[in-house]
Amino acid sequence: MSIFDRKSSLSTRTVLTIIAVFFSGFFCWAQNFVYTNNNNYFAANTVSAYLVKSNATVAQVKGSPFQTGGEGNGANGYIAANRIAVCKNFLFASNDFSGTISGFAINALTGHLKMVPGSPFTVIGTDSEGIPLAITSDCKFIFAGDLNDFRIYAFHVSRTGKLTPVQGSPFSVPWLPGTIKLSNHNKFLAVSLNDMGVGMYAVGSDGSLQAVPGSPFSASQGSEGYGDMQMDCKTNFLYLPESFYKIDIFSISSDGALALIAGSPFASPTNDNAAAVLSPNGRFLFTSDDSSGVNSFRVVAGGGITSLPASPFNAELSSSGGLSINKEGALLFVADFGSNQTEFSIMKVKRNGSLVLASGSPVSTGQDGGMFSLAAYPPKTCPAANDND
Description:
By secondary structure, this protein is mostly beta strands. The protein has one helix at residues 12-27; strands at residues 33-37, 44-52, 58-60, 66-71, 84-87, 90-95, 100-106, 113-115, 121-122, 133-135, 141-146, 151-157, 163-165, 171-172, 180-182, 188-192, 198-203, 209-211, 230-231, 237-242, 246-252, 258-260, 266-267, 276-278, 284-288, 293-299, 305-307, 313-314, 320-325, 331-336, 343-349, 355-357, 363-364, 373-377.
């Protein structure tokens, strides 16, 4: 009997779905999606989901927006704190006002989200400043900053997406953890500490955090208002966007120690105190400018950057914030936290690093909030640890 015979125990649709899932692993047929943490204004929070089409337009996923079970705080709190993270087929979104993290399983074919058992998970109780998130690429641990206190919470992520505290959590830091970022291969966690600079912490095999010798490391003189950081795939450099039209760049030693590179801070056309993201190939750095657009920089030898002449590129937003780039590096997603209804834009990334606003952008989610963060799925990845390319 043929597997497509309707009299068999498997329906034709089920068999085709199984075949599509099987072959998608070999031919990269996976769909591309973008998810927004809407941070609804002191109300039930939601995550909106969109299928990203080949022409860079979007279609809302069936069932979107998805309830998180927590509450947002609108356009309040620290704008640079990343509030959404994806790994493998899981998505996690923090709920600022209720102080919780919501976990979802992602359907890789449809983009649909399903709440994981036990979600939402309590982090710090009622909060209002924001809960930045960073998750390991292997999906073993997730870290959550406490913007009301000097602490970082660490959780183990189970195979079902359930979160349980790591022994010793929360871990103390010397100042409020504005933004947090994991290095590739999850060896270090970087923590921005306002005018104290950047703290670097070694991540243990059990998810514990230990400050590296010399931490925290000072930024350039007069630095403040740090944005969401980035580290390159080889963990050679850390990029710290800031207020006052500049970006600090640090070299990273094998033990995690930081040192400002020659030429730092580097000039920027606009303020950069919201977010930064590197292209998957590491050749370009993009920063949101807290107004209508995005800055683009070419990464040069030694880790330095030069601004593209046409930068910043207009995304037609009121206050550009969170950034995320798709796995191929062809599309940049930009959150707008300043509009009355949360919205985002899609920018096409050209080969020279310049940006073009995609047709149909900006896209309104129809939600009343302050959308600081969004995430592309599948996420950007780095080469394997033994890959020397």
